[in-house]
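WARN no homologs supplied; continuing
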Amino acid sequence: MDDEHVGKPIPVAFGLQILPPIPIDIDNQKWKYHDGRSKSVERVWRNDVELVKDTHYYVDLKRSIITFDRDGVFVIEAGVNDKIDVDEGGGEDWATLDPGTYTTTELLVEIKDKLDDTGDLTYTVTCSDAPERRFTISATGTFDLLWRTGTHGKDGTEVSIGPLIGFDDDEDDEGKKSYEAEHDVITVPKADLILVSFMGIVNSANELIRNGAEVFKYLMNTYKGLIDTELNLDSIYEAKYANENVL
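OK structure emitted
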């Protein structure tokens, strides 16, 4: 998200297909997409990928806030992204992960267990707890992660887990006891584009407001604090029904 949009007022949406860009709260992984109540959220996309409700994100319709999952969901497929090529000093070997869907915590355990079984070193696999959330693979001795030159790396069959957990496969990680991934693969970063399809505005009775005059009345009541007796509702409705393009 461009910095020029940070700090700008969040618009109220009624019948609009495109709103001005609204920045996400990176630290709390919350996105207030609309300054009013919402009837429903139909679909949410992160870049070009459609997200799954109550798995990748959670919705507060009353405040029109989407909270993105901070744990992560990772799908390991056999022959697609299930390998880690490693060299502990005696030549290349590799770990093969079990296929399945993992939370972050589950995947940390799976990677550690499979790496421990591969060689002589004992591994520790962690993920930082605050943005940016990145994977780190460490061991009791020096080792290489062969993201590029390994049998299953970028120059090989390209079925390494590296890119899935944020490691670049343009080069190997070599000669150290610990490596942190180059990319955050869990939280929604500033550069991501989030799109949402939703229904709003609704009143306090959770009724969808479609009529232009009703929208105007809602805005005056809610944001200006005006009561109905302070509004000339007759002229609003008369103008609305005389010309459907008004309000």
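The chain has three domains: 3-70+190-209, 74-180, 211-247.
OK
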